[in-house]
Amino acid sequence: MSIVNSIKEKNVFLNVKAGSKREFLSDLAQRAANVCKVDALSLFDTIMERENLGSTGFGGGTAIPHGRFVELNEPYVFFARAAYPVEFDAADGKPVDIAFLLISPENAGADHLTALAVLSRILKSESDCDKLRKMSTAAEIAALLSEL
Question: Is 112 among the residues known to form the active site?
Answer without folding.
Answer: no
